C-alpha cells in the first residue's frame, strides 16, 4: 500500500505564497523616509506661518465699454497695473498660472488674460500690468439697466480679478501648489458729464486675497 502525502494549506502558503522579508524591509524603509520628508515640510510650513501675498490696484483705465442689444453683447478694453508684495521675511513665493479678467455687476466683461509666472523674494514687490479686452462678450438682460443706473449715479465699480496658483519656498524646500484669488475694486467717475478719454481709477485700492 502506497502512502498518500497531503500537504496542508498552511504548508502551501509558506512555500509558494510567502513574501520575501527583504521587500517588506525596503517598503517600510521607503515609507518611513517619505513620511519624514513630509513631516519636515509641514513642520517648516507651520513654524514659519507664511502670510498670504498682498495686492493693491495702482491704476485702472477703461478705454472702451460699449453695449449692444439683440443680443446683448459688450465690447471692452481695460488697462490695469497691480502691485504685488510678499510680506514674509523668510519665505519666497512662486506665482504660477496667473489669469486676470474684469467683471462688472458680477458679470465677466473681458476674456481671461494670462500673466507670465514669476518668483518673488522675501519682502519683495513687483508691478504687474495687463491689457484686458472683450469683443462681443454676452451679458445678462439686466446689464443695460445697471449701466443706466450707474450713469445716473455718476460712478461705477469695476472688479479686477486675478486667479492663479502659488508655491511657498523656504531654503531649498518648495511646497505644493495652492490656489489663490485676488479681487480689486476700481471706483471710477461715470456719466454723460465726464470729459472724453479713458475712465481712470488711481486710488491705490487695497485688494482682497484668499489662499
UniProtKB/TrEMBL annotation:
Record key words, sorted: Membrane, Transmembrane, Transmembrane helix
UniProt-listed GO biological process terms: defense response to other organism
Coarse class of the protein's main subcellular location: membrane
Signal peptide extent: none
Superkingdom of the organism of origin: Eukaryota
Subcellular location(s) per record: Membrane
Transmembrane segments: 26-48
InterPro entries tied to this protein: LEA_2, NDR1-like
Pfam family, one: LEA_2
Topological category with respect to the lipid bilayer: Single-pass membrane protein
Late embryogenesis abundant protein LEA-2 subgroup domain ranges (all copies): 81-184
Gene Ontology CC entries for this record: plasma membrane; plasmodesma
Record-given protein name: Late embryogenesis abundant protein LEA-2 subgroup domain-containing protein
Species for this entry: Daucus carota subsp. sativus
